[in-house]
Amino acid sequence: MGAPLALFRGAGGMFSNIWHVVGFVEWCRTNGKKPLVDLRSVRAMNYWSGTEPRNSWTEYFSQVSDADLELALELNNFEVFQGVSQDMNGKLAGLGTPEKLLAPLKE
Asked: Where are the domains of the chain?
């Protein structure tokens, strides 16, 4: 069995969510969790208002891991990310750009 899933459910605007996802991914690495962005189950500022629910994150970006959001939601086998501590924020500020932090996930 793989690492336990952690979901990010941000309700901010796009750029706020991008930076929060960067922190979320680093938190997952530090804590042995598999990250998954879920902007389908929340009403973010830039939510999809059509008839079929969609994950607005994947309208613009790739999912941050190979986990399947629909399966995770169906099985209800995840924890919801609650944010990072001030200590983690300080560490993230020194790590570089979002592209640099997310690059290892694309390898």
From this structure: 5-106
